């Protein structure tokens, strides 16, 4: 069995290749954007980045499969190594020159999250995690915050911009958390939001509708940093299209209870 740390190194190499490409490429003009669905854009930059990532991953781990947002959307199989890839998490930010976007790569081995890399492209920061080995930023081991009082807590979130039927219940959740918490931030990259949670910058995070490539790497970062990640109904199985709530253990429990009543 391939060691989990080896998978982390492969993912980091692939993410670094894509990040170099994204930093060098000229931002596409609006005429070149493809609208996959309402408010959800893609460009040749996304697709080219995913191709570059896939070449590295499948060459380094023969027989592995790539599950990517742009070129190969599917679901993880039960055996072997599957890579869950978002070549450009925060595409809208990238298109507008807003410096909050990342390359996100996770490895699932025999159905279990085993390795993760989130590469913050504008800042050149690389977050890594290996199952059972912790989460790291460079040589600094990451740990979720110890804040247990929502009045002192800062939360990250994402708007349900694809499925607007979720907007009304989301707004009720937003209002309830706003009344109780220190603050809420929405920066537009779930991978980086979860990295911020793992690093103790956020105390909690929630979003009602995300895809597996949006969250897979970030989920392992948070869990390996001591945090908790589930769906809104408390299930640990978050690698599907659906909801996510994450936090340090105290804030996760508080969020679950509040979201259930909002």
Which architecture name of the largest domain does CATH use? Answer: 2-Layer Sandwich
Count, helices: 7
Write the CATH fold name of the largest domain: Fructose-1,6-Bisphosphatase, Chain A, domain 1
Helix/strand structural class:
alpha+beta
How much of the sequence lies in strands comes to 25-35%
- Principal-axis shape equals globular
Report on the architecture of this protein:
The chain has helices spanning 4-24, 44-60, 91-96, 167-180, 190-198, 212-224, 249-261; strands spanning 34-37, 40-42, 65-68, 81-89, 102-109, 112-120, 125-130, 134-137, 140-141, 154-157, 183-185, 204-210, 228-230, 242-247. The chain is α+β, with helices and mostly antiparallel strands.
Please give a handful of descriptors for the protein shown.
2 domains; Fructose-1,6-Bisphosphatase, Chain A, domain 1; 14 strands; D-Maltodextrin-Binding Protein, domain 2; 35% helix; alpha+beta; 262 residues; 7-stranded mixed sheet
């Amino acid at each position: 069995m391939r060691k989990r740390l080896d998978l982390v190194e492969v993912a980091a190499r692939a993410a670094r290749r894509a990040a170099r490409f994204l930093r060098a490429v000229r931002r596409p003009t609006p005429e070149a954007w493809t609208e996959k669905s309402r408010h959800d854009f893609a460009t040749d930059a996304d697709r080219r980045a995913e191709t570059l990532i896939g070449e590295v991953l499948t060459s380094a781990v023969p027989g592995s499969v790539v599950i990517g947002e742009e070129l190969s959307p599917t679901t993880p199989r039960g055996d072997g190594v599957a890579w869950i890839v978002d070549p450009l998490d925060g595409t809208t930010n990238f298109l507008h020159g807003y410096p909050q976007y990342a390359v996100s790569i996770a490895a699932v081995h025999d159905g279990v999250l085993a390795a993760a890399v989130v590469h913050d492209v504008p800042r050149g920061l690389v977050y890594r995690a290996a199952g059972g080995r912790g989460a790291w930023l460079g040589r600094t081991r990451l740990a979720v915050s110890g804040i247990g009082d929502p009045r002192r807590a800062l939360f990250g979130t994402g708007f349900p911009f694809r499925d607007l039927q979720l907007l009304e219940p989301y707004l009720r959740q937003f209002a309830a958390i706003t009344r109780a918490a220190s603050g809420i931030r929405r920066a537009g990259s779930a991978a980086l939001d979860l990295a911020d949670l793992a690093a103790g910058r956020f105390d909690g995070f929630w979003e009602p509708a995300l895809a597996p490539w949006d969250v897979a790497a970030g989920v392992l970062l948070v869990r390996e940093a001591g945090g908790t990640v589930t769906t809104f109904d408390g299930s640990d199985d978050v690698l599907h299209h659906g909801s996510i709530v994450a936090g340090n253990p105290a804030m996760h429990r508080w969020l679950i209870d509040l979201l259930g009543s909002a």
